[in-house]
Amino acid sequence: MEMLTEMEKAVLDRLADNPFAAQQEVAESLGIPRPTLAMHITQLTRKGYLLGRAYVLSKKDRLVCIGGSTIDTVLLSDQAITFKTSNPVTTIHNFGGVARNVAENAARLGVDVALISLVGDDENGRSLIAHLKGLGVDTSGVSVRSDLRTATYTSVVTGSEAVVGFSDMEIFDKLPSEFLDRLVQHFISATWVFADCNLPASVLFALLQRKKGARFKLALDAVSTAKAVRLPQNLENVDALFLREEEARSYIHQELDPTKLTRELAHRGAKNVAVISRDFSVAVSTPQGETNIPAPKANILDPGGANDTLVSTALAKLLLGADFVSAVRQGTIGAAVTSEVFARIHPALSPQLLEEAEERFAAGL
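Structure (tokenized):
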């Protein structure tokens, strides 16, 4: 975020007291000409402290999520899958998509959050938007396309492991790089922006360009090994990077252990890196050094949504001022409690649930 001059601070204080004040009135109260005040207001808008008439102040702690919104189907099997024959399963339908999941989790944790995504003009898309609105998520950045269908993701889970997944996400490939230009107010209001690699590489590149000189911090999630390659080679504008082990290896094309993976990703410019293992332990690299965070001993039933909960919990804590290591450590608590239910989003997720779970895991229960 760019620093304010003393006069810009004074102007901001006056507008905070009365956002509907006339420019001449504000100028006279500060003892400056009205054209000079107008210049300061322009600068405050450019720096992201104002959103325009009537001088709406940007919110201090806001998360904007950009990326996938899907309808997920989980096929649960009590036994190993046998190919070329019928397999008995239990079918569970959820709302999904990494960015959408992070937005919902963050809203359940009390974060002021907005989602930027794309859905079809169909029942799936309408129900997805309505669900988020009911949780208080700002969905004004969700575009509806009548010529495309809402994305879907289907996974097969045996025991506590997802063995295969199928994605139908053509809708996101249709996003043009200028898609973000229509959503500038969301970026102006954001403290953190989170994006997933469901976005085309061109849109991710445009987002990284927009990050330069902006007030918001940027977090990225690779989503999958196939989509990790969409990450740019230069990560210097990335404030927080979340990848699974296999995604990190796919991205850098090296078979390294988690700690060395974080080191390599930091070398490419990412300020803070979290490489997440299958058991949801995390190797972390920050400007202050490297550490490994063990996973809580959870009773894993469905690991499908745990990674997204880890990320969203960490972002919620970062918005509250936590350092990256502490935020990710809390994220492992969120991942653990989500893995203990058959749902991508824990239906009772809340700050209180995380506090209770942290005490339970610390006691070894």
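The radius of gyration is 22 Å. The chain is about 40% helix and 20% strand.
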